[in-house]
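Tokens help. Consider this.
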Amino acid sequence: MATRGPRPADIVLTGDERVELEGWARRRTTAAGLAMRSRIVLAAADGGSNTEIAEQLSLNRSTVRRWRGRFVEQRCDGLLDEPRPGRPRTVDDSKIEDLITATLETAPKNATHWSTRSMAEHLDLSQSTVSRVWRAFGLAPHKQDSWKLSKDPLFTAKVRDVVGLYLNPPDRALVLCVDEKTQIQALDRTQPIFPMMPGTPQRATHDYIRNGTSSLYAALDIVSGKVIGSLHSRHRAIEFIAFLRKIDTEVPTDLDVHLIMDNASTHKTPAVKKWLLAHPRFVVHFTPTSSSWMNLVERWFAELTTKKLQRSTHRSVRQLNTDIRAWIDTWNDNPRPYVWTKTADQILESIANYCSRIKDSGH
């Protein structure tokens, strides 16, 4: 005949304990263990047996028994994780402060930036300690990014104008991001390219043979993602006007055409201005100087480069142009528009905050 085990201890919660446990029970995955223990105690306070609670929460009965007993002995504090034993710290806060200060404010005598090895030697620390602290504080002395802040006196107005078109395109109009990718080289490697094999990437010689250049004019529709492209051997106002004529032919006549483009000299010649005056449905919106990041067609040029041009070989300009036209046709079969998300206010605030941080840094 089976015998019954000891009766589990009754749990009666105070109002404050119930509020605290219910708050813990709603914790996200970062405190999943604490949330589960709180649910066990709450279920026990509602009169559930260990077996019932284990079935309800899909737990082992011994787990329920352990945390129920811990709560009876220590109340809410018994549900918190106890500190685990480990080796005591060997690097105190003052040493970490010295490390961060030296990283940000000094440079070694024989280099432009610190390495983990040189910094460890300089401060008499281990290389792994320097590496851990740098990772924790997001410091990477070996890296350097490039940047350039536009000095355009109309920067704010142009940002609001272009971003306004991205976020709220006008009705009965087509918004096109226009630019040129000039001097695309038809390159052929001096030796055959070795194909990829298990454990070995594709290999190509670092040197190449130049077989001429081509210039690509492109207009990206911000809504559909389709691209109008035109290839020319030269990059002048004459070729740009020819491209404008192509756009005029391909865009339905009942639509206005808003062109977002940079301040290149070929976009502002008297001949171009005269052509635009003769075609009033074309409205030009210039991006600020030194702000190519605002023109979405630049993002499309990057895809063309990385997915096609960077690893291709071409023995003639004709072969290069054929490849580019085929790539554009494939893109337009399944276009993927780029979605602009930042408002003008967010962009201007971000730039202002960054400039303020640089000013306050003392550099």
Summary: Residues 317-333 form the longest helix (17 residues). The chain has a mean pLDDT of 87.
